[in-house]
Design brief:
This is Adhesin domain-containing protein. It comes from Mortierella polycephala. With about 375 residues, this protein is mainly beta. The chain has two domains: about 80 residues, no CATH class; about 270 residues, Pectate Lyase C-like (3 Solenoid). Helices cover about 10% and strands about 45% of the residues. The protein has a 23-stranded mixed β-sheet that branches. The chain is globular and about 65 Å long. The chain starts with 8 loop residues before the first helix and ends with a strand.
């Protein structure tokens, strides 16, 4: 459903050539509104925005207008134009692109933290190197903005803590908060952070990613496991996880987007909360499994193995749904909004764990394939 990283050199060239558009709320003091479709770097700034149509004829403003009175808005910036009830900020096709990279020695730093701060729109993409000889973690960063002035304010910092084996990478707008608020009313930025793990790395202790403005997170690392915890928090954007092994804790939060996690192997705690859909495919045979999934729309969990433990499904629109060919399910509560019970070979209710709790405002679905 979702793509991962850079698929080819040709895609990279196309991405750099195309413009980038971001929707901005009418309130000039508010930051741009994010939608995954409108904020991808390969969005063609000359094409029709998905939400345009007749609104464009009625509300479009001349994108060639310039504001030379405020340096924060850029002396040569293109004003955002109206689409319905939104501004659309445009990153020109010929905008300057700044790239840089950083390396981390995984033998010294096994706890990785990446933070995209307010004002930074973009994606964090975690993948594995195809070069089996590569030994370091590579961080490749690509940035651009709607004006040269905004681009100059994109900053980064890399902090290394040898005692805790922690490497922290931050990307932020180097501006006062009041100036940033004003600048974002007319402008936008884009950043892509590609983190490439060595193919032969084996494992890291923990991985934490926070995107506090707009942008998604994509993780795919089938050859590298996480022994402790994986934590991802995205304020506006989707979280995508594939073929990942986690030891103790998986915590995914998408306050404004969806979560898709497939081929996930974990032994203990799973916590997922999303504004939109949640689609979780879990492979676990642990008796300590503790899963809680919540969505303001649709929530689905698929267990790939046999499961013997508690379940609790809750939904406010469609009735909760349990799909299984496995025997021995005992119902404790069942109505149009809730389904509770447990799987047990002996017929006795298991104590404590394992348990799976799913809450979806529109629908909640559990499938046991074992």
């Amino acid at each position: 459903m979702f793509g991962f990283g850079r698929s080819s050199e040709e895609e990279d060239r196309n991405r750099n050539q195309n413009g980038h558009s971001t929707a901005v709320q009418i309130d000039e003091d508010a930051p741009p509104a994010y939608t995954p479709e409108a904020s991808k770097p390969h969005f063609d700034s000359h094409s029709e925005h998905p939400s345009q149509g007749s609104h464009r004829d009625n509300h479009a403003r001349d994108a060639s207008d310039r504001d030379e009175s405020d340096p924060l808005l850029g002396s040569g910036s293109r004003r955002p134009y109206w689409v319905g009830y939104f501004y659309v900020c445009v990153i020109p096709e010929d905008a300057k692109i700044v790239t840089f990279n950083q390396t981390i020695d995984p033998s010294q730093y096994t706890n990785l933290f990446f933070h995209l701060d307010r004002g930074i729109t973009g994606d964090v993409i975690i993948t594995q190197s195809r070069d089996r000889a590569e030994q370091n973690i590579q961080i490749l960063v690509t940035t651009k903005a709607s004006t040269a002035e905004m681009l100059q304010h994109i900053a980064s910092s890399f902090d290394f803590e040898p005692r805790s084996l922690r490497a922290e990478s931050k990307f932020f707008m180097d501006m006062e908060s009041s100036d940033l608020k004003r600048a974002l009313s007319k402008n936008c930025t884009w950043i892509e952070v590609d983190v490439i793990l060595p193919y032969r790395l084996g494992s890291i202790d923990s991985l934490e990613i926070q995107s506090t403005f707009k942008g998604g997170v994509q993780i795919r690392m089938d050859q590298v496991s996480i022994t402790d915890k994986l934590i991802v928090k995205a304020k506006e954007g989707d979280v995508t996880l594939k073929d990942t092994k986690i030891g103790k804790e998986l915590n995914l939060v998408a306050d404004g987007g969806r979560v898709e996690a497939r081929g996930v192997t974990i032994d203990k705690v799973v916590r997922i909360n999303a504004r939109r859909e949640v689609d979780l495919e879990l492979d676990s045979k642990s008796s300590s499994l503790d899963v809680k999934v919540s969505s303001a729309e649709y929530a689905q969990v698929v267990l790939m193995r046999s499961y013997w433990g508690h379940i609790a499904l809750k939904s406010y629109f469609d009735p909760p749904e349990l799909v299984t060919r496995q025997c021995c399910f005992y119902t404790r509560k069942s109505n149009d909004r809730s389904l509770e019970g447990y799987f047990s070979i002996t017929g006795f209710e298991p104590w404590g764990l394992p348990k799976v709790e799913i809450k979806g405002d529109y629908s909640a679905r559990l499938e046991v394939r074992g």
